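Prompt: For my understanding, could you write out one protein's sequence and backbone structure tokens?
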Amino acid sequence: MRVTVLVDNCAAQPSSLGSRLLAEWGFSAYLHEPRILYDTGLTGLALINNMRALGIGPDDPDYLVLSHGHLDHTGGVIKLLDMRTRPLTVIAHEVALSRGAGFTADDLRRRNARVVAIREPREVAGGVIASGGIPRRWGPSHVGGVADEVPDDMALYLKAGSGLVAITGCGHSGVENIVEYGLQLTGAGGLRAIIGGLHFMGLGRARMEEAARYLASRDPEVVAAMHCTGLEGQAVLMGALGGGFRVGGVGSEFEFRGRAPGRSPGGSGAGHSI
């Protein structure tokens, strides 16, 4: 399973310069098999530029899953649909489509999208699960500076070997909730990776350190915390996780092979094979 980061706040990889990749506030990631686009960034400009630069065409994704309705994750949806020549299945929490996203379900249908509004978990394709609403049973939400509790926050879950890989847009549901719910849904034996925004921005230092200790207790191979995690949050995670923390950013790739959980050697760069 291979994941490429298409939109992030930072172009943190040296390869981003040669490929002329663009950064913007927001997040988007692409699963190459099955072909699932997760979020679209703020404007669509970085998304389309970076897809082209990395050899991913607008028609390549079969599915688009939206993590939640905030504009920095949905802002490129209309631009992407307007560039496509074939239908796209769009999966989103029903709350995301009722507020905040900047478009309605009918706007998407007029652009040849099949809209699937969910509240409960749903398999997207190939064993990849859209979480639906994530229960807050195991820890606090990470709303940070956001005024609402973001009930539409959804992660993507999949198993690589016997371990869980979780991809998250902003992580508003809170790290413990995202991981524990993913383990429950997938039956995975442990956490291999979490990739995306964890929304440490706006949290106090004590809460950041608590969340980092929790992740360290799960002994993941990869924590690639981007977007709204913030620089202080990334520093806290690096201190707690050592080699398990990976630099993300636009153009970074993560490839997971089918073996049992267990931390691989550390390091950072444009590509990580595990």
